[in-house]
Amino acid sequence: xxxxxxxxxxxxxxxxxxxxxxxxxxxxxxxxxxxxxxxxxxxxxxxxxxxxxxxxxxxxxxxxxx
Length: 66
Description:
By secondary structure, this protein is mainly alpha-helical. It contains 2 helices and no strands.
């Protein structure tokens, strides 16, 4: 799997967790622990997306300096 396709897959999963979190927030019976778990998943995905974007952008930035 290329970095770009992996990045796209992570972004898709991030959007899905975001939608799931919004639905859970609207449900008064949703336990706080469930909301916390969804928030944690969303943050982990965001961190991984950021890390991959930096990996992709770093070689591009370095090559533009030369």
